[in-house]
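Can anyone check this?
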Amino acid sequence: MGSSPYDDIVMDHIRNARGYRALDSATHRATGHNPLCGDDLTVYAMLAGDRIEIVTFQCTCCGISMASASMMSEHMQGKSSVQVRDWISSFVADLVAHAEPPAVAADPLRYALLQTVRDLPVRTPCAALPWATLAAALAGSAEIVTVRA
């Protein structure tokens, strides 16, 4: 890949995925599917009260979904589920709209994924699927999540 910062961030999460495992102690779980790319994803979350203790995932998915899920598993731990739901809703909307990314130093995760979908718009559902699946898990939804872009 190129030498831009998002390439390095995304590639690191593809090569060294964080949180890639089933979580037997999960209090919340949801499944996502991206029919265009063939991504199948399960997101697991363990909450203590309203606080997210841990987020993990398992998938048969492309690199962008893998990187996005890995970033999610790192970024969401320790946050309140209400805070996360609002953040995810805004973030998925930004991904689908191909919003202008913030400065890389201000928010490397948001920058990396927003720049990826701006450069590769066909990958928008791949990048958004893990986040939308976590939102469904936190909402207790049993429906399979898909993201349209």
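Reply from J.R.: I decoded it. The first strand starts at residue 28 and ends at 34.
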